[in-house]
Design goal:
The complex is a heterodimer of chains A (79) and B (134).
Chain A: E1 8-11, H1 19-30, E2 36-41, H2 46-57, E3 60-66, E4 71-76
Parallel strand pairs in A: 1-2
Antiparallel strand pairs in A: 2-4, 3-4
Chain B: E1 6-10, H1 15-30, E2 35-39, H2 41-46, H3 63-72, H4 78-88, E3 91-96, H5 97-103, E4 116-118, H6 120-126, E5 131-133
Parallel strand pairs in B: 1-2, 1-5, 2-3, 3-4
Helix pairs in contact in B: 1-4
The chains are: A alpha+beta (79), B alpha/beta (134).
């Protein structure tokens, strides 16, 4: 697998639902197609919300990783 | 407006109910669903420009314990959640003309989040999907 170049990290830890998703949507809108954005979220809702939005919006979920006290979502702006 | 439009009638003006409504609005907007909000009575009062961020208390079922719990559990203000929802999606916020008359206020008295003043029939014309009352 080719190395993934993360261009932006959003630290949304401590932000309540649906804040992390809203921040991700804003960043995706501002970004260029192909850009890879990482969101760090401690909100439980993000675990279902971010994958649901990514699928609906036609983006690519590159990685979901459980870290210590938060989850890391890596999303590529696919379109 | 399409079939998947979410229409919410906001009646209560307490911060807990308005927060719940704002979170639902943001979720629907994020998933690409149009949202149509109609502000009546105490919800309309809470959207007045001079008091939107003031303490609007909690619903009676919260009680003192529930209110304390809400104070401890930091949440973004509902007006901010709605502002974000409007940025990312198609969200219309309409003030009920009848409630406007009752309070003797005009559009200028309301926060800019409110798009316009509407009669109930025009709200219903846009509410092609389900309508929920908060």
């Amino acid at each position: 697998m080719a190395e993934i170049q993360i261009t932006r990290t959003i630290d949304a830890k401590g932000m309540p639902c649906p804040g992390p998703l809203m921040s991700l949507i804003g960043a995706i809108r501002e970004g260029e197609v192909g850009e890879v954005i990482e969101v760090l979220s401690s909100d439980e809702g993000s675990k279902t919300d971010i994958p649901a939005w990514v699928a609906k919006a036609g983006m690519e979920l590159v990685e979901v990783a459980d870290e210590d006290g938060f989850t890391r979502f890596v999303v590529r702006k696919a379109r | 407006m399409s079939e998947d439009t979410l229409s919410l009638v906001l009646f209560s003006g307490t911060d807990d109910r308005l927060t719940a409504a704002a979170v639902l609005t943001a979720g629907a907007a994020a998933m690409g669903r149009p949202v149509n909000l109609f502000l009546q009575y105490w919800a309309l009062d809470a959207f007045r420009a001079d008091r939107i961020t003031k303490d609007h208390g909690a619903a009676p079922e919260a009680g003192p314990e529930g209110s304390a719990l809400m104070a401890r559990h930091a949440q973004q203000h509902w007006s901010e959640v709605l502002r974000q929802a409007k940025e990312i999606g198609e969200v219309g916020i309409h003030a009920c003309a009848l409630s406007m008359e009752m309070f003797e206020i005009t559009k200028d008295d309301l926060d800019p989040l409110v798009d316009d003043v509407e009669g109930v029939a025009s709200f219903m014309a846009e509410a092609t999907g389900p309508v929920a009352f908060v």
